[in-house]
Automatic annotation (TrEMBL):
Source domain of life: Eukaryota
Protein name stated in the entry: Uncharacterized protein
Database matches in InterPro entries: START-like_dom_sf (IPR023393)
Native species: Desmophyllum pertusum
Length: 105
């Protein structure tokens, strides 16, 4: 999958493997874990697309459905470790640390 990114990540590509989500017990609450793993595929050799191959160190998200409205609200916990094989600027970058709502189909 190629996800268009803005500068300075516009020339990066990832190949990721997403196993199916798994239901887990998250500190006594029903939750789902989605893992993202770094992957390789012979049809996408590194550098063939002219992009820099970034790697994924192992990301995961835990989705905890809201107890009163599980079909419309949830709490999301996520951890990400990526190597973009380059630098990120310290100016003109906005990082959003909080998302008010999310929806999973």
């Amino acid at each position: 999958m190629r996800y268009p990114s803005s500068f300075p990540l516009w020339d990066r590509s990832f190949i990721l493997y997403f196993p199916p989500p798994k239901e887990i017990d998250w500190f006594g609450k029903r939750a789902f874990i989605q893992i993202q793993k770094n992957a390789w595929h012979p049809s996408k050799p590194e550098g063939a697309d002219g992009l820099v191959r970034a790697t994924n160190g192992g990301n995961f998200s835990v989705i905890i459905p809201d107890e009163t409205n599980p079909d419309a609200a949830c709490t999301l916990f996520s951890l990400s470790t990526n190597n973009y094989n380059g630098w990120l600027p310290t100016k003109h970058v906005r990082v959003d640390h909080r998302q008010e709502s999310c929806c999973f189909l």
